[in-house]
Amino acid sequence: MDSSFEDFCLSLPKIELHAHLNGSLSDKILPLLGCPYSDICNYQKLRNIPIGQRNLENVFKTFAIAHKATSSSQTVYLATLNLIKEFAADNVIYLELRTTPRNEEGMSAENYIESVIKAIQDSTNRILVKLILSLNRQHSLEECTNNLNLILKKQSEYPDIIKGIDLSGNPIHGSFHDLKHLFERGRNNNLFTTIHCGEVVNSKEIHEILEFRPERIGHACYLHPNYNGCIQNWNLLKELRLPTEICLTSNIVTGTVDIYENHHVQEWIKDNLPFSLNTDDKGIFNTSLSQEFQIAKKFFKFSAPDLWKISMNSIEDSFANAEEKIYLKMKLEDWKFKNYKFFSQ
Ligand code: 6MZ
Hints:
Blueprint lengths: L2 H9 L2 E7 L8 H4 L4 H9 L10 H14 L3 H17 L2 E8 L9 H14 L5 E9 L4 H17 L4 E7 L7 H13 L3 E6 L5 H10 L3 E4 L11 H10 L3 E3 L1 H6 L11 H6 L4 E3 L4 H4 L3 H12 L3 H14 L4 H17 L7
Parallel strand pairs: 1-2, 2-3, 3-4, 4-5, 5-6, 6-7, 7-8
Helix pairs in contact: 1-14, 5-6, 7-8, 9-10, 15-16
């Protein structure tokens, strides 16, 4: 990769809209939380699984390592603080962090949320951070309902930080259908919604998610008819123009896409549909947002102005408020003005 392009991707102010807290913890952060060396080695092993043997199951097992390392209020706080620092060092100027509130011995789900929020408030980096709280599709309806009740309570205390809810978890389990009413309740209480969609082949569920019209969808690997999806869903997405959170490396490591050259984002590019570039679980997948931008340039021939535009468009798709969006757009314009060398080649 040409080093001036690497510099461009690192220096470009970036917008991260799809990052799971526990999957994002790097092997530099895990030791700070007291994570044993053997666990860190297992965490790294996933990256070396050959193509063809990669699958979602292996990835979902790996989250247990990070969850063990963040099982107290103190470690949740430390993990969040250090993670924000890492994103800021990668010149991410706006981060929407998402995480699933958890009860652990000595830490309630409410303590968990409080610890994440305290770290966001204490962070001294030049980065704006918002929180999306996740419902896990593997959990029972009762657990998800309790989780939403808690989220709504905390949202009323921290409306400037808690912006939305997400549906995540292993897509082989559970269904959007059973939890849809909870997302409706969230929406009626001023929470934005983003839904993991089509990480496995399931056109019926994808259709139901699109019909719900969340503010954004995540992944969308199997939505387009060339990717085991169906034309009705693709036409619906084209009509609704829901912004899609694309996670290139994540899709490769989970085996939902075999090689970057075959990534479904090409259909979004062809039809000029809105999308953002994201890391998903940068710790587990050993990536960074700069690296995702470099990959996008390498495989999909994006120019510097194209990548700048992706950052700009992501601001519009974010859950930031109107003033925050203006501030972020000004930062990006200002950076372009000062870095004209990248645009004049
Ligand atoms: C679906 C995912 C995911 O919430 O404990 N998560 N859900 N698809 C993915 N694609 C790879 N990557 C992460 O972070 C870890 C949790 O995020 C969800 C899973 O529920 C995982 O347990 P938190 O901070």
